[in-house]
Amino acid sequence: MDCQKIVKSLNHKDFKRVPNKGSWFQEGAAVYAKEIRHNIFLLFVILKDIEIENIQALIAHFDNFSSIGQKEPEQVMFYLSIKDKEDLHYFEKYLKISDN
Hints:
- By secondary structure, the protein is an alpha+beta fold.
- It has one domain (about 5-95).
- It is built from two helices and five strands, in the order αβββββα.
- A five-stranded antiparallel β-sheet has the order 1-2-3-4-5.
- β2 (about 30-35) and β3 form a beta hairpin.
- The radius of gyration is 13 Å and the shape is globular.
- The model has no long low-confidence stretch (mean pLDDT about 80).
């Protein structure tokens, strides 16, 4: 998977990288978040393991932006795990990632 394209796209779409200091996300995961409604956030979590790259997308309710990466969400409303190239193909179409 080309996570660099995804991270570049997230940065262009006003997502902010969140410090991952809690225990809810895997250690070493890169967490990007954007508020889509009051205290409702769209998150992309990029997990890098030795053998696989895994991207998780979720919509979740947190107390506030600063609680992301430190506490569990109040509620998870949507969750998607992307583990292979076919899943990534649809994900890239959704984000309209360019080759630049």
